[in-house]
Amino acid sequence: MTLLIIVAAVIAALALWVVGSRVAFHLEDRPRLVRATTVDGWTLSLWHRAPRQQRFVQPVVLCHGLGNNHAIFEFRGRSHLARVLADAGFHVFSVDFRGAGRFAPPDPSFVEGTIDDYVDRDAPALLDAVQAATGQRQVLWVGHSLGGIVGVLASARQAKGRLAALVTVGSPLFFEPRSLFLRALRLGRFFAPAGVFPARVLSTLFAPLAGWFPAPPVAHLTARLDNVDGRDQRYLLANVFADLWSGVMEQLEGWIRSGRMTSAETGEDLRTPALAVHDVPTLVVGGSVDHLAPLSVTQRFFSELQAAEKELVLVGTAFGQAVEYGHGDLLVGRDADRDVYAPIVRFLERQATPS
Fold first, then answer.
1. Distance between CA 296 and CA 181 in Å, rounded?
2. 3-state helix, strand, coil in the chain (%, to 5)
3. Which of 94, 161, 210, 213 could link 73 by a cystine bridge, Cβ 3.0 to 4.6 Å?
């Protein structure tokens, strides 16, 4: 009986911590919620952070990666990218793709999505919502990981002509098969019989343990954890993760295995026309020890990108920083504001039209 009471008390304490961490996160300087509706009937959310003093015409759109939501840009650390850009004078919109954040499908029983949906349906709807809020048709797109891939692909499709500039952060446009990542994708699909893997629930359950105990190997794929304080790891797990569509994982696994980036709907090549886009100035940011977007992949992407104006920023000890950089810590590492945000802000300020 005593053991049951102790177990119940521990569970209750962990539950209270998780609830408290979410409340604390959402009460901090919250941006304004804006809604977007896609052509196939999904309602998406994006979060508008207005500048104290507007200095630039084009707004910035921040797009999360696989298994994350908008909160990775609104992270409660000492300075997050959304706030840094708003302080620099930009209107900033941190977006949620379908399945992340506050969303509503057209049919509650329908739970499925692909990367094609992000590129051809979500991206245009989010851009339309930004235009309705600001009057600006063109935006400055900043995408982390899959969010950067979506920006690159969309610039040659439904969002053609709507990106004034593009920043990719840890975005692999080519692939080096990683057995651990492929196993993680297969496992995720196996445990997604209803079409979705419950990553948000699992990350929340493990959140109180983060930083106190050794992380599983897959966690080291997603970030260099030495760059993220234990307390921040716990807040991140409790707030920034989203569920994973089985269709997205299947499409991504197919890309990695084949080396080709094709549409799930038509089978057409998505990468070649996207790399050929000439009129979108692009900044490519890569981490020195990023296991999901290795240096060789980042450099090949930059080399084959045909943008008339392009810039490459690599961060790590070999490039002048005090620490190595992995994947997620490019955004949430303790020194990311100095090492990663600063070159992003400088690039966007050069590309934007003064207000």
1. 17
2. 45, 15, 40
3. 94
CB 278 within 8 Å of CB 307: yes
Q: Which residues does residue 37 pair with via DSSP β-bridges, in sequence order? A: 43
Is the confidence at residue 248, as pLDDT, over 80?
A: yes
Instruction: Give per-residue burial for 299-314: e unless 16+ CB within 10 Å, then b.
Output: eebbeebebeeebebb
CB 283 within 8 A of CB 166: yes
Q: For the full predicted model, state whether its pTM sits above 0.85.
A: yes
Among 14-18, 93-97, 244-248, the range scoring the smallest mean pLDDT is 14-18
| Domain 32-351 belongs in CATH node 3.40.50.1820 | yes
Cα dihedral sign, 203-149-154-280: positive
What does the chain come to in residues?
Answer: 355
* Domain limits, the chain: 32-351
Q: Which two tokens stand for residue 202?
A: 């699992």
User: How large is the C-alpha radius of gyration of the chain?
Assistant: 20
298: CB partners within 8 A, 6+ apart = 170, 172, 284, 286, 290, 312, 314
> DSSP string spanning 224-291?
-GGGS-HHHHHHHHHHSB--EEHHHHHHHHHHHHHS--B-TTT--BSHHHHHT--SS-EEEEEETT-S
Residues 216-247: pLDDT tens digits? 888 888 999 999 999 999 999 999 999 999 99
Kindly give, in sequence order, each residue whose CB lies less than 8 Å from that of residue 40, ignoring residues fewer than 6 positions away. Answer: 106, 117, 121
> Which one-letter DSSP state was computed for residue 347?
H
Do the Cβ atoms of 70 and 148 come closer than 8 Å?
A: no
Contacts of 124 (CB under 8 A, 6+ apart): 38, 39, 154, 158, 159
